[in-house]
Automatic annotation (TrEMBL), chains A, B:
It comes from the Eukaryota. This is Uncharacterized protein. It comes from Vaccinium darrowii.
């Protein structure tokens, strides 16, 4: 039964799904749906996901969207996925669900709004919005502080003190990675105070190489392009 | 192994957990943590949930927060919970996860911000915020439209066309119920256009009686109190 993943490598939840599949030898067809050019609003894609967002999957005739639901499903539906990604043990699983649910209105909401209000506004056809950026950075910094002081408590290098990564590590680290498109001084200001977060990101990259770097290639290209534009803008000013 | 549920009957996700337990004969100790008086910020409660939010549970020595994670856990950890609440079938379960994940940044974000910006602002020690209210109502109305036209597609009366309610129905209907504290004309404007949503709410109430009405009793008391204050304010003006 074939698996199609509709996504885009500039979408952080789509990247998490791609990396998960590659890490676990799950074969899939990668179908790029460009949200910058509003391909997510096309009638064809709305048949897959009426919410007009990536990622979405089609597995045989089964359609599914929302990246956390997809990651949970793939971890259970494909044989041979190591237990640490989404443990069968009810209490271990519930803790990972708790991180994933917390993520939406905290880290995700902060990081996504900040990046869209600042760096990606022109690409999305919007004006940069400084007021939204201020509120979003506040939520983002509070969320990073919670990761630093609570979710990364414990002896292991991963969330919840685990010794191996789960789908929550993948989802949250991919989310933070989008900050790469900001100016380097902004990244330093936001991530600088959070040493454990930085180490955890490195550990997650290491645990998922070479797929992590490969899937993030497009993000690094966009980062370089935006950095060039900022330099040009500064020189012109 | 005893179950303690830390919550408050004015918290919509806490109400969903209470109703779920009562519907499924899960015995629990209800421990009220009043977020209006900032009891969620007490050191004792932060030992349970450092995010300072209700609901949270303690099951034996196992602590858990985030209502969707709690509902998933309870549905699996307690024997005898009927399958329709959170099906064992992977694809049926994934669809329910998809609704639950979608909920956070859509219906929940819209409804919660609207109610806090308008009706509950004084109780929370804040000024009403008309700009937030406008943005929140827009997101709320779009979310209700998605429920009406997409999530309630299908032959059964519940989300995803199911013939019996799931934890997603309980979570989403409890969320919408908080609109009761708004002025009746605002409720009519927001819910009026969504006939299928209204019918689904009635069906969910019927499927979970008498617990639904009992657990919402405090909300109806607050509604009456706020309505009285509005009338007094109008008369004084």
């Amino acid at each position: 039964m074939g698996l199609k993943v509709y996504g885009h490598r500039m979408s952080q939840p789509a990247r998490a799904v791609y990396i998960f599949c590659k890490m676990n030898g799950i074969e899939f067809e990668e179908i790029s749906v460009n949200f910058f050019t509003k391909k997510t609003a096309s009638p064809v894609f709305q048949e897959i996901n009426p919410m007009k967002q990536v990622p979405a999957i089609v597995h045989g005739t089964f359609k599914l969207f929302e990246s956390h639901a997809i990651l949970r499903y793939l971890a259970c539906a494909f044989p041979g996925v190591p237990d640490h990604w989404y443990p069968a043990d009810l209490q271990k699983r519930a803790k990972i669900d708790s991180v994933l649910d917390w993520h939406h209105l905290n880290l995700r909401h902060g990081a996504l709004r900040l990046v869209q209000a600042v760096a990606l506004a022109p690409k999305l056809g919007r004006q940069p919005n400084p007021q939204v950026a201020i509120e979003a950075e506040k939520l983002l910094s509070e969320s990073l502080e919670k990761i630093e002081t609570f979710w990364l408590q414990g002896s292991g290098p991963f969330l919840l003190g685990n010794s191996e990564p789960s789908i929550a590590d993948l989802s949250l680290v991919c989310e933070i990675m989008q900050l790469e498109v900001l100016d380097d001084k902004d990244i330093d200001r936001i991530l600088g105070p959070h040493k454990k977060v930085q180490q955890w990101m490195e550990d997650t990259k290491t645990a998922t190489k070479p797929h992590f770097e490969e899937i993030h290639g497009v993000l690094f290209e966009v980062k370089a392009e935006l950095q060039k534009q900022r330099l040009l803008g500064a020189n012109n000013a």
